[in-house]
Amino acid sequence: MGAFDLDDQRNSPLRFLTALWNILTVLTLMMSCCVGLVTLTIYLDPYSSLNPFPPPTPIQPVQLPTLTPTPLQILPPTWTPSPTITPRPTLTPTFTPTLTYTPLPTATQPPSPTPLPPEMVLFTISPGSPKATASTAFYPELGCKWAGVAGQLFDAEGQPLPPALVLVEVGGVLNGEPIQLLSLSGTAPQYGPAGYEIVLGDIPIASQGSLYIQLFDRQGQPITDRIYFDTFGACEQNLILINFNAVAR
Hints:
Blueprint: H1 3-44, E1 123-125, E2 131-133, E3 147-154, E4 167-174, E5 177-184, E6 195-201, E7 207-216, E8 227-231, E9 239-241, E10 244-246
Parallel strand pairs: 3-9, 3-10
Antiparallel strand pairs: 1-10, 2-9, 3-6, 4-5, 4-7, 7-8
């Protein structure tokens, strides 16, 4: 074989590869052109059938009908005026009530009971009683902030009675209020062995014959009549001392 034939055989594979690459290059260019063309078409028309992911279909705006204004018609009034109201006649009262004021009753001294028979009176008031004095001799720390009745009981010979033998009651009306207070002989030894004491309040109050004192035995039977006495509003007379002596039989 000649030298030319040998060179042609050596170059045959090289030419084949070159031709193959040229064909692939042309195909690649054609595909690139096709892709570019499809991309441009989708860009210009997103709703094209070539777009595999088309955007949602836009909502068509609703066309509202055009409103034509209607002129407002003002109708004349159809009401009729009401008749004139005649005022009612003025009523003149024919009866004028007269109010009479009756003051409320105030606390008054109840009527005294029937005097006891002489044989039932076992004690009489001692000479010099009642006596108004100052309570500071017995309660110096209280000063004028005290008022009361006190005393002691003696037998017919002038000796103090045994304790808890006689019940002492002070009742009546003081400063417009009814009171009924009790004590027992021998419970206030500061006045004597048979002493008693009844506290009327924390201030001295004046009264005239509206309070009484009465003695009872241990069975509750009266052994004296009610003996009425006065009280005073002065601090030097806030203690009323009343002593009793048994009646000699």
